[in-house]
Amino acid sequence: MFRAEGLTKTYGSGPGAVHALRGVDLEVHQGEMLVLLGPSGSGKSTLLNILGGLDRATSGHAWFHDLDLTACDDEALTEYRRRSVGFVFQFYNLIASLTARENVSLITDIAENPMDAAEALSLVGLQARLDHFPAQLSGGEQQRVAIARAIAKQPEVLLCDEPTGALDSATGTRVLSAIDTVNRELGTTTFIITHNAVIAEMADGVIQFGDGRIVGTHRNARRRAPAELSW
After folding, report:
1. Neighbours of 115 (CB within 10 A)
2. What pLDDT score was predicted for residue 102?
3. What SS3 string covers 65-116?
4. Cα 157–207–84 angle (5° rounding)?
5. What's the per-residue H, E or C state across 128-146?
6. Which of 217, 228, 129 is CA-nearest to residue 173?
7. Mean per-residue pLDDT pooled into runs of 10, the chain (231 residues)
8. pLDDT at residue 113 in the model
9. What per-residue confidence (pLDDT) applies to 93?
10. CB distance 103 to 95 below 8 Å
11. pLDDT for the residue numbered 195
């Protein structure tokens, strides 16, 4: 589904330039769940932003199927994000004056082939909280609303940047279970950025980053359910 060759990203120029990516090669197959591990500043988020069409590479190429993302103009990248990609960030970015159902409906109202907002919320275990406002939900529930919003348009790809970073371990487990369910039941290719190596055990594969490079990869013989993880 994704392929990258010689991908670089440099911010600034001269002696003060920051080399966020230094020649990344990557292949990702449809339906996989991958965890990206590494310290802050190692290039994980930069790679995710390029694959998600939020940022542009300085050099190299990245393809989504046959679409060369590095050759797309702004309009083409916007269309790609709208059709194919769902984003989940550390902070939920819910609209306080809208219920859970209404927050998800913001996406379903503009998507081409959306699932019903209630169905998306049910998939992440919030069928009993459809008409609650964000202030009436716990942090983990708010993050699951954000996941439901991201997958309601039925994207091929779900990109999660530190989705449990602001949560305790018990709440994080419930959020990871929601992401795991989406991947298994919808076949959504899923990337999870994390600093927590334990989370890597729930993925098909792990990509380790260091200083803008991929410094290691491995496949898990068996994916562990989030409830089996020892935080």
Report:
1. 20
2. 97
3. CCEEHHHCCHHHHHHHHHHHEEEECCCCCCCCCCCHHHHHHHHHCCCCCCCC
4. 10
5. CCCCCCHHHCCHHHHHHHH
6. 228
7. 98 94 97 96 96 97 97 96 94 95 93 92 96 97 96 96 90 94 96 93 96 96 92 68
8. 87
9. 92
10. yes
11. 87
Q: What is the CA 58 to chain-centroid distance, rounded?
A: 22
b/e code 27-60 from CB counts within 10 Å (16+ = b): ebeeebbbbbbbeeebbbbbbbbbbbbebebeeb
Regarding the domain delimited by 2-90+155-226, which CATH topology (the fold level of the hierarchy) does it fall under? Answer: Rossmann fold (3.40.50)
Distance CA 143, CA 149 (A): 10
Per-residue pLDDT, 181: 95
- pLDDT at position 90, please? 87
For 151, residues 6+ apart whose C-beta sits below 8 A from its C-beta are 86, 115, 120, 123, 158, 182, 186, 188
Pick from 85, 177, 76: which is nearest to 124 by CA? Answer: 177
Measured in whole angstroms, the distance separating CA 204 from the mean position of its chain's CA atoms is 15
Q: Can you give the length of the chain in residues?
A: 231
Domain ranges of the chain: 2-90+155-226
